[in-house]
Amino acid sequence: MAWPENRNRYRGGFPDCLDSFRQLPDPRQSPATRHYFGEILFIALAATISGMDGFEDIAVFSRERKDWLREHLELPNGLPSADTYARVFAAIDPQAFMDCFTAMVASRCPALAGELIAIDGKTLRRSGSKGGKKALHVISAWAGSRGITLGQLAVGEKSNEITAVPKLLRQLDVKGCVVSLDAMGCQHKTAVAIAHAGADWLLALKGNQGKLHEGSVALFADGKALDWIAAGGGVVSCHEETDHLDWIDPKERRKWLGLRSVICVESVRHLPGEEPVTARRYWLSSLPPDAARLLGLVRGHWGIENRCHWVMDVVFAEDQSRIRSGHASKNMSLLRRLTHNLLQTSPELSGKSVRSKRLAAALNPKRLAAFLGLS
């Protein structure tokens, strides 16, 4: 539907910070359409920032913040109902929504070169139904130093992450970055896709790469082998790093485009009253053997679990959401990450937790306006 001629300064409901979403196609075809598409999205975003986690919650928020909303929106036919939000988010094209999302991220974070971009999957546990629709599984790209999601892609199930990663990479600009994945992504094709995107790769190595994993375990368990590598001109520092890869079968090595390092990270866990527990984990990388840097990158990879996925489940109650009609679960998942990005990048209440920021937005309309970029 066409925007009214007397557009307000937020362009039909979008503040300036959401200009990228003005190109999102309105999926509604009914001649009975009563609410502006942009205003529906704006209210949903404002409500999600304010701690609302479902369509009924969004409708309650809009009723309680009606006067505030009228300061920024036209609302020619009043407020949308919970059913309206449900129908709209079920119908929005997820790919088009994602394109707008990545365009907004690119406009706000144009220079990512040198960043660690962690990619990992997450299942929305309650988005499926018994004997019917499977739970939604998504993979996300996370810029750890910025604390934001760069993009997200829905996949059929966890095993499809392997084919989905190259698709996600094609939608992002990761040139000059380091892209890390856990063992599910430790595949030849993934390394090639990352290299072709102009980035370095860091891939967790486990039993799914049998011989290579067994060889890596044996190498780092044999001090004499490391000494022999060092004597032959390889690099073995006090961090136990090596760039001498002749022990890998040449045919196998050629499959891993740009392979330069095999990494062993040893962690020791101390709990009161218990014996220390030592674990070793192995990684492959196209980066040169700089043990201190590689250790930092390996530890940084898990930020996507601790600072994104955990926040989605604990603060946004994503695992408890039973939204599943049409494309709604995909679109609401991306709306949560859009909300998270805005809260993370806003200077408002800098240093406070995401939960605290959402609570402040719910209690204080001025805080909410600041998070939305309205003031």
Structural overview:
The protein has 375 residues and is an alpha/beta fold. It folds into two domains: 16-93 and 329-372, no CATH class; 100-309, no CATH class. 42% of the residues lie in helices and 14% in strands. It is built from 15 helices and seven strands. A seven-stranded mixed β-sheet has the order 3-2-1-4-5-7-6, sandwiched between helices. Strand 2 and strand 3 form a beta hairpin. The longest helix is centred in the C-terminal third of the chain and has 18 residues, at 328-345. The two termini are 28 Å apart.
Number of helices: 15
The chain-level structural class is alpha/beta
> Portion of residues in helices?
40-55%
> What's the pLDDT, averaged over the residues?
86
What amount of the residues lies in strands? 5-15%
Morphology: elongated
Instruction: Catalogue the unreliable spans.
Output: 1-12, 235-242
What is Rg?
24 Å
In total, the number of domains comes to: 2
Major sheet summary line: 7 strands, mixed
Number of strands: 7
**What distance separates the N and C termini?**
28 Å
Instruction: Output the strand order for the largest sheet.
Output: 3-2-1-4-5-7-6
Elements, N to C (H/E): HHHHHEEEHEHEHHHEEHHHHH
